[in-house]
Amino acid sequence: MSSNVKTMDAPHGPPHGAPPPAAETQSGWRSRMPEQSNDYRVVVFGAGGVGKSSLVLRKKKKEEEEEEEEEEEEEEEEEEEKKKKKKKEEEEEEEEEEKKKKEEEEEEEEEEEEEEEEEEKKEEEEEEKKEEEEEEEEEEEEEEEEEEEEEEEEEEEEEEEEEEGRREEEEREVCSFCSCYLVKTRFQFEYNNWYSYHVISCNKNICTLQITDTTGSHQFPAMQRLSISKGHAFILVYSCTSRQSLEELRPIWEVIRETKGPNELQSIPVMLVGNKCDENENREVPATEGEAEAQRWGCHFMETSAKTNHNVKELFQELLNLEKNRNISLQLEKKSQLKGTKKIREKCSIM
C-alpha cells in the first residue's frame, strides 16, 4: 500500500492558549486541509522533535528499499523468463530440426519404397511377359500335339473301320449259327424320345435294332405302358452314385411284371445296369447290392460307364445273347434301296 499511502504533518496552529491571528479564522484552517480523494491517507501527529519526520523518512526508505528489492526481483524474474524463453526457443528449434530430419528421412524412405515398388512392378511385368510367352509356347505346342493326336486318331479310326469292315465280311461268310453283331448307328428324335437304330447281323442277314430312351415317360403312364407292351427286351439303368435312382426303378419293374405277366416275362431279356461305375469316390450303391437286387428281380446285372465307354457294347451284345426266341422275322427291302447292303424293317425293339 506504499503507493497509496500519503503522510502529512499536521499544521502548526498558534501556541497553546494564544489566540489565533485575526486573519486566520476557522474557515481558513479548513481551507488548508487537503481535499478528499480516493487515496488512503495517513496523518502523523506529534509535537516537534518527536522524530515524526525521521519516522516518515524511515518509512519512505523502507518503502524505497522494498521497491528496489521488488524491482530487483522483477528484473531477476524477467531474466529467468528470458532464459526460459530462450530455452523454449532452442528446444522448439531443436524439435523443428528433428521434425525436418524425420520428414527428410521419411521422404527418403518413401522414395526408396517407390523405387522398390517400381522395380518390383517391372520385375512382375517381365515375369508376366515371360509367363505369357511360355503359355503361348505351351498352347502352340499343345495345339500341335492335339493336331498330331487328331491325325493319329483319324488314322486309327480309318484303320479300325477297315478292320471292322474286314471282320464283318469274314463273319458274314463264316457265321453258320444265329448270332448278332453291331454294324452302324444312327439317331432320330421323335415324340420326346431318343431312338437309336443299330444295324445288326443276324444269321447272315441284316436287321435293325431299335433302342428307345423313355425319358419323361413316367409323367404319362399310358405311354409308359404302351412302350412296355411293345418292348421285346428291357434295360433298367440306375446311377452307382445315387441310391434314389435305384429305388425309383422298383415301381417301373412292377409295371413291367404286371404288363408282361409272369409267363411271358421269363422269356424276355431284362438287364439291371449300374452306370457311372467309374466314379468310385461318389459311389453310393456297391456292385454287390446291385447284383443282389437283380437276383431278387430275376434279371441279369452289369455295371457300365458311358463316360469311359466301359461295357457299353458288351451290354447290348449280352442282351441279344439272352434272347431266347431266335425266330426273328425278317422283311427284305427292295434291291434299289439296299445300296449294296440288305436292309430289314425293325422287328427287335429294346426299351
UniProtKB/TrEMBL annotation:
Entry's localization field = Cell membrane
Per UniProt, which keywords does this protein have?
Answer: Cell membrane, GTP-binding, Lipoprotein, Membrane, Methylation, Nucleotide-binding, Prenylation
Instruction: Note the Pfam families from the entry.
Output: Ras
Return the GO cellular component terms, semicolon-separated: plasma membrane
Report whether Transcription regulation shows up as a keyword of the record: no
Region described as Disordered: 1-169
Under Gene Ontology molecular function, one entry of this record is:
G-protein beta-subunit binding
State any GO BP term from the record: signal transduction
Q: What InterPro entries does the entry give? A: P-loop_NTPase, Small_GTP-bd, Small_GTPase, Small_GTPase_RasD
Q: Where is the composition biased (Acidic residues)?
A: 64-80, 104-163
Primary localization = membrane
Superkingdom of this entry's organism?
Eukaryota
Sequence ranges of Pro residues compositional bias:
12-22
Q: How does it sit in the membrane?
A: Lipid-anchor
Instruction: Provide ranges: composition bias, Polar residues.
Output: 24-39
Name listed for the protein in its UniProt record: Uncharacterized protein
